[in-house]
Amino acid sequence: MDKPLLRWGILGTANIAQKNWKAIWNSQNGRVTAVASRDFERSRRFIKECQAQAPFRPAPRAFASYEDLLAAPDIDAVYIPLPTGIRGYWVKRASEAGKHVVCEKPCATSVVELVEMLAACQRNQVQFLDDVMFMHSRRLQRVRKVLDDGKTVGPIRRITSAFTFRADEEFFASNIRTQSGLEPDGCLGDLGWYCIRFVLWAMNWKVPERVTGRILSEFKHARSKLSVPTEFSAELLYPDGVSGSFYCSFITGDEQWVNVSGERGYLCMPDFVLPFTGSQTAFQTGSPGLDVQGCDFEMQPRCRRWVVKERSHSHPTAQESQLFRHFAEQVKSRTLNPLWPEIALKTQQVMQACRESSRRQGRPAKVDQAGRA
């Protein structure tokens, strides 16, 4: 007998929701039951377009309100790609309706708001997870083994990363990521979240003692009261001298690399967020050395390329499919995974400290883990 599928509702019709529709289809243990938008025709059109590429049987229903979708008895979990400015309200409403939640990032507008969201999920015994896909990749599991072997990279001293893309005029004119009321943290929330998450993951979830952050450029939309960061850099400082840094931007050509520097070598990935297209994912380690023989100075690369059998996208082995598969397995286990909300909160705490430092012209800010604003 086939195992029952986790029944999904999608709140909103953002572009990323199309990718995650197919991820649910490829997860092989879930199906989309309904999609809601404030515009009924938009819901219908979204379903029609997604069904053409990844059809569910029966076809998902369209709703003209988020409330009606949350009230539906045949939905177990919801994916919420709504703007950050209103996301907290709907996460709490979903939890009150008994729906498990996968939430886009950044999760909330503040640490205080996220604490309230997670408390609602805990109170209503529903699982919470933020939609950071690389956390569920097979490649990251292999990276963990390499970092932990004690010899390939050795003790970590420095983690650096960049996540950027060059947005066009249309993006700045109409995309919600440039509007402070909807996405107040701009590129820091949209892109920096991934860089912060990787540092925390590499450091086994230890939170930095203090951070510095700087807004390098910003943009004020005509419909916004405040500017949002369009270029941001930060330093994350640990008490034992380990450090991390990242750069994120809406005005720089596409980059998404991370480098881990250790006492014995380094590990790097040029595509740590969105794997380059192909049937394999990969990363590189190295421990270069200088060989000197008289007048000859040779720098030996001593590199190794590690390959993981994992599709880059739109496949059952792809990281986005793994995320929804893992989530469904967790829900079906009837137990809550406490790590998932914990790491979302730590990421929000570090991000907020970076933004606070930027408001103080880069003066160091402590990471508040007490849940205060």
Task: Describe the structure in your own words.
By secondary structure, the protein is α/β, with parallel strands linked by helices. It folds into two domains: 6-134 and 330-337, NAD(P)-binding Rossmann-like Domain (Rossmann fold, 3-Layer(aba) Sandwich), CATH 3.40.50; 138-319 and 346-366, Dihydrodipicolinate Reductase, domain 2, CATH 3.30.360. It has ten helices and 17 strands. A nine-stranded mixed β-sheet has the order 16-13-12-11-7-10-9-8-17. Strands 3-2-1-4-5-6 form a six-stranded parallel β-sheet, sandwiched between helices. Helix 1 crosses helix 9 (319-332) and helix 8 packs across helix 10 (339-359). The model has no long low-confidence stretch (mean pLDDT 96).
Report the CATH superfamily of the largest domain: Dihydrodipicolinate Reductase, domain 2
- The helical percent reads 25-40%
Backbone shape: globular
- Tally of structural domains: 2
Write the layout of secondary structure elements.
Layout lengths: L5 E6 L3 H13 L2 E7 L3 H14 L7 E3 L2 H6 L5 E4 L3 H13 L3 E4 L7 H13 L4 E3 L7 H11 L7 E11 L2 H6 L11 H17 L7 E10 L8 E10 L5 E7 L1 E12 L3 E4 L10 E7 L2 E5 L2 E5 L2 E7 L9 H14 L6 H21 L5 E2 L7
Parallel strand pairs: 1-2, 1-4, 2-3, 4-5, 5-6, 7-10
Antiparallel strand pairs: 7-11, 8-9, 8-17, 9-10, 11-12, 12-13, 13-16, 14-15
Helix pairs in contact: 1-9, 4-5, 5-10, 8-10
